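Teaching note: in complex prediction, the entire set of molecules is handled at once rather than each chain in isolation. The prompt given to students was simply: 'Predict the structure of this complex.' The entities are:
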Amino acid sequence: MLELMQQIINGLSLGAIYALIALGYTMVYGIIKLINFAHGEVMMVGAYVGFFSISVFGSHIIVAMIFAMLACGILGVIIEKIAYRPLRGATRIAALITAIGVSLFLQYTTVFFLTPQQRIFPQAAFTSQEYIIAGLSISNKDIFIFICAVTLMTILQYIIRRTKTGKAMRAVSLDRDAAVLMGISVDRTISITFAIGSSLAAAAGIMVGIYYSTINPLMGIIPGLKAFVAAVLGGIGIVPGAMVGGFLIGILETLVSGYGNSLYRDAVVFGVLIVILLVKPTGMFGKNDSEKV
Amino acid sequence: MKVLENKISQFIIKVLILSAIFTLVQYMLIAGHLSRFHEITLTSMCINIVLAVSLNLINGFTGQLSLGHAGFMAVGAYVSVVITNFYELPFIVGLLGGCLGAAIAGFIIGVPTLRLKGDYLAIATLGFGEIIRVLLQNINYVGGPAGISGIVKQTNWLWLFGSVVLTIIIIQNIVNSSYGRAIISVREDEIAAEVMGVNTTNYKVLAFVIGAMFAGLAGGLYGHYFYIIKPETFNFLKSFDILVMVVLGGLGSTTGAVIAAIFITILTAALQAFPAVRMIIYALILILIMIYRPQGLMGTKELSSRTFGKIWSGRK
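The expected output is the structure of the full assembly:
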């Protein structure tokens, strides 16, 4: 029982990271029905921005995080403007292929300029410490990741539920045409959605750096895919669903590594995805929409 | 009669052109005009053509975005190598076994996932492709993550050329048959097709299984040329590679897929020393084509003797 508790606690910080990334997927999907494949790469860029601001400028981890969030927010808006906006009227498959293209572009531009080698995330920014609470060991890394993630999610919920921008975002994702008629600037709202989603991914990128201690240009692929699974699990397009899905996938992954074979970890996550898609494609929190001709 | 004569003469011309290409390359190989590097490029080219044409049947003609083609290639490669190297059966049995294995995998994966649409299908096939890879990594019988090495080289120009021609002929004939019309109707409007009495699920699965089968063939050819197969080769980047060819050539154009496969292989060979640059170029090709020419180079048009005839006589 104690071991199970320990595994779940280990899973919570990983889950928090997945949840943050999944939020970006789900928000973008909710508003323009696009699986933003490049989202994992935005997270990677965030990790690198954090890495350089800590190692070169010696900034505090929180400052680095805010800086990375700003940088990636801008990156997200640029990606949307250049690559996705011209395709807004095109087929979904065309948009999806473009997203794959953007993702490859970010990966290999990073490889080109920063070499494919792994870098050690500066440990000086974060001295690791273990606490034993009621027989469970918790490290300050886990606590930091968890608190940061929950804070960011609370801010996000506040923006979506309580501000005018959030109201516009909800309106556009509900019915774009009606939103236009109500005087909402759709382009601006979509840009803001990308900015928010990408900055959450940047924060997640720094957390991945802290969690795994290394970063590399291709680090965004697998967490990106898993976060996408989390978004689908919770019901894609539904913000609370992405949070719950992220935590579930994180805990599931640590349980598989802890009790089973860690080599099967990725296969289990994808297996979960396929089961959800087959049983309830709309996810845990999704409502069933009938198909319209 | 005139039509028949025309068809016969066209057929003869095609056979002549194909045998000329075959003999020319065979002569250059025997006479030693091609270096080892050229030979490898030629082999990859043929394998890529088989992959692109078969994926085009699924993505282009049927309109079902599949991102798991490398997974089927992996199944074909492993099954054929196990047959030829572990059981020491002839190469042809290995290739057929690889095709069959990949087709079965395609059926098992296709039946449940093809109910999904658009991006969900893309993600599900991507997931399945990765699951195949992870499973192969964990099966010790086929060497786990290290894969199988020391495979006897049996793929030669005859096999490659034969496979390419066979793939193109079979897929073209399917596309031009009543099955093909049903398959294309699924792409154009699934609901309308269903209303017209087309059993859309059946046709989607059919296209998927045939596509997977030829991916298996490509895998078998690959395994018996490059001495070594390992699960990492068949990750989803390989699937993206094939997708780039199909998209570049035009979703729904077999000749487009062939041209794009040749182009991409040469590009890859030319940029071999700079893999990162190659991937950046890939990415830019994908993005720019989708923005400026979403239907690809050829669109759904085919390049045929008739097109040349039109250009020749100056008609439009």
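Point out the following to students. The longest strand of chain A covers residues 130-133. The interface with chain B takes residues 34-35, 83, 86-87, 90-98, 100-105, 107-109, 111-112, 116, 225, 228-229, 232, 261, 263-264, 266-267, 270-271, 273-274, 277-278, 281, 291, 293 of chain A (CB under 8 Å).
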